[in-house]
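User: Design a sequence. Structure:
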């Protein structure tokens, strides 16, 4: 790990924080407007259940937002700066890490990091650069325990696909977008908008959200199934495509993504996968290398620079 000179940050997804912020602000505005109206009418006692419900829902969203905004880990070479929900930072070094536990849950994955048996922090697979930090932690622990193996090197069947937490984020995004439409309608109604204008604006928003959801579903359900030397690409709405490891011309290995190029494709790019959002990318890369596929590594993210 001492040779890793990369500087990067592990933090919560900006998209999720924006959605939580928008929903929190809408709930705050709607809740305050409702509470003001019931208090001014003198019926607060009759509507106390609704008031408590508004406050509870707002507290849930705002608390989640606060936790997401405050969490941050800055990695500088072999040093980690961990910021907690009170915005206090503590410094650790990779040499301090004695062990870790990886939990692959139904919806999310989690890594707890320990120093001499004491938990010092945890990271969630929905966080930015989760895979990068997890790989660094795993490599450091493996270096200290060379006789132990933390991953299965001889896996022959697996799938390169979006992580469970990414699909969970997609579902959360869809729910948030659906919830946003009535919130927009309520907001416009509170401002005195006519039913016709509210219907038109909500209809336009619904169409835009629907198109976005379709594009997101296509991306999130694209995957590669690897069965020994056979590769099956599934990309909705297209049919399955079968090929062999030997049909791969080369793989461009960038810090954040890998680009797979085929020998007989026009254009030759077969698929692109992200280390942060897709699982089993490193296993696929290792198997391709063992199969004699040309791997071109890049120290810089030229993909995003040229994009």
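Assistant: Done.
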């Amino acid at each position: 790990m001492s040779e890793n000179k990369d500087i990067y940050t592990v933090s919560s997804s900006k998209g999720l924080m924006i959605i939580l912020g928008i929903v929190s602000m809408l709930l705050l505005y709607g809740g305050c407007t409702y509470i003001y109206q019931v208090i001014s009418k003198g019926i607060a006692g009759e509507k106390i259940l609704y008031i408590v419900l508004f406050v509870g829902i707002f507290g849930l969203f705002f608390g989640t937002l606060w936790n997401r905004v405050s969490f941050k880990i800055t990695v500088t070479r072999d040093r980690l700066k961990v910021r907690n929900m009170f915005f206090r930072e503590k410094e650790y070094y990779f040499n301090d890490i004695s062990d870790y536990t990886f939990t692959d849950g139904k919806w999310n994955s989690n890594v707890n990091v320990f120093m001499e048996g004491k938990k010092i922090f945890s990271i969630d697979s929905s966080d930015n650069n989760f895979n990068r930090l997890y790989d660094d932690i795993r490599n450091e622990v493996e270096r200290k325990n060379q006789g132990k193996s933390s991953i299965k090197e001889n896996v022959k069947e697996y799938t390169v696909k979006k992580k469970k937490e990414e699909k969970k984020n997609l579902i959360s995004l869809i729910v948030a977008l659906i919830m946003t439409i009535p919130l927009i309608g309520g907001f416009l109604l509170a401002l005195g908008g006519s039913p016709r204008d509210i219907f038109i604006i909500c209809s336009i928003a619904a169409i835009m959200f629907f198109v976005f959801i379709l594009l997101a579903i296509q991306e999130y359900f694209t995957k590669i199934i690897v069965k020994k030397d056979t590769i099956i690409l599934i990309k909705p709405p297209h049919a399955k495509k079968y090929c062999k490891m030997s049909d791969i011309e080369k793989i461009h290995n960038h810090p954040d993504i890998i680009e797979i190029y085929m020998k007989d494709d026009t254009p030759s790019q077969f698929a692109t996968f992200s280390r942060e959002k897709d699982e089993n990318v490193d296993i696929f890369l290792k198997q391709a290398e063992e199969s004699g596929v040309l791997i071109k590594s890049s120290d810089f993210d030229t993909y995003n620079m040229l994009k």
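The longest helix spans residues 14-40. The radius of gyration is 24 Å.
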